[in-house]
Amino acid sequence: MEDKGTFWLPPQASTTAHEIDALFNFILWASVIVLAGVTFYMVYYAWKYRRRSHADRPVDVHPSKWLELSWVVIPSLLVLVVFFWGFKAFVSAGIAPDNAYEIRVVGKKWLWEFEYPNGTTSVGDLYVPVGEPVELVMTSTDVIHSFFIPAFRVKHDAVPNRYSTIWFEVKEQGEYQVLCTEYCGTSHSEMYAKVIAVDRGEFNEWVRTGGDDTSLPLPRLGEELYTQQACNACHSIDGSPKVGPSWLGTWGEERPLADGGTAVMDANYTVEAIVQPQAKIVAGYENAAMPAYPNLSERQLAGIVAYIRELNGDWTEEDAAGGEAPADSVAAASPEPAAEPVPAE
Ligand code: CUA
Q: Following DSSP, what letter does each residue of 44-94 receive, concatenated?
């Protein structure tokens, strides 16, 4: 039966989730019982000992030693239970098994990048084998982010210049949402990723090929990359401004640059902007600090160019029939090294 989760908690998709949930439920219901008891007696005694006439005088109260002791001892016991129970869950959630499969995670404004042991990288999609422990070794290139997979009950900050780790073992194949839970800037709320848990065979195949799908037409590949590579966190496709310039509306135009020059928004410019974002920054976006994507394949770059052209009505029947983008737009697009990064002022 599929685990749908409860009112309070999402499905328990990892092997350690039940420990966290059990403790959460204990604290929740202990708190509810204490709250109900305290509230009940508060209201009851307020009513019972209300002033009945102007002549009422309070009686002398002699405290009961046992009653006094009980509200020292019982809460102390409860707190100790929570401490030891929590410590046990903390240790089992915090220390990965020796045979865990290691994947590196880098948080950047505003995307999650994953690197597998063979060098394959992906952005936004974290493929993992189901039924095996996976350890994530995380860091950040800019600010503090926080990697959170609610269904696995794991969360940890990704901090610049240091490594933090989490681990999990996924119980069932499927897709699970990843969130950033540290306020890291403008597009914090859109810093999503997905865990895609697949069986070992499919996982091996994915890691080997890097997930490149050669059967997709270029614009569709670009459209897929738009969300997969988290371009959508900073670039809209409807012309509205976000952190970066929109992909709609400026194709083929000459645009003013931050350093005072101009650049035509064509395939060469687009590819350079992806691989070396700091080389030619469009005026007004000096502080947007886009991360570089040096690991995209030629076909992936061509796909993004094709998608942008299609958005702007520049992708014709012939382009589609030819499959690949015309030679003059992409073939010569391996970017030259940037002279000097444009200093952000
Ligand atoms: Cu990264 Cu919030």
A: HHHHHT---STT--PPP----HHHHHHHHHHHHHHHHHHHHHHHHHHHHHH
Per-residue pLDDT reduced to its tens digit, 218-232: 888 888 888 888 888
The pLDDT value given to residue 30: 92
Per-residue pLDDT reduced to its tens digit, 84-134: 999 999 998 889 999 999 999 999 988 999 999 888 888 889 999 999 999
- Mean pLDDT of all residues belonging to the chain: 86
Distance 187 CA to ligand 1 centre (A): 7
Q: Which atom of ligand 1 is nearest to the CA of 189?
A: 2
Expressed in angstroms and rounded, the spacing between residue 313 Cα and the centre of ligand 1 is 34
Assess whether pLDDT exceeds 60 at residue 342: no
Helix (H, G, I), strand (E, B) or coil at 123: strand
Q: Is the CB of 108 under 6 A from ligand 1?
A: no
| Nearest alpha-carbon partner for 153 in 89, 84, 244 | 89
Nearest CA to 194 out of 112, 133, 76, 298 is that of 112
Beta-carbon count within 10 A of 224 CB: 16
- Residue 144 alpha carbon, nearest atom of ligand 1: 1
- Cβ–ligand 1 contact at 129 (below 6 Å): no
- Rg, the chain, Cα only: 28
Distance (Å, rounded) from C-alpha 25 to C-alpha 89? 14
Nearest CA to ligand 1 atom 1: 145
| Residue range 160-164: mean pLDDT, rounded | 94
* Measured distance CA(75)–CA(164) in Å, rounded: 34
Q: How many angstroms does the Cα of residue 151 sit away from the middle of ligand 1?
A: 18
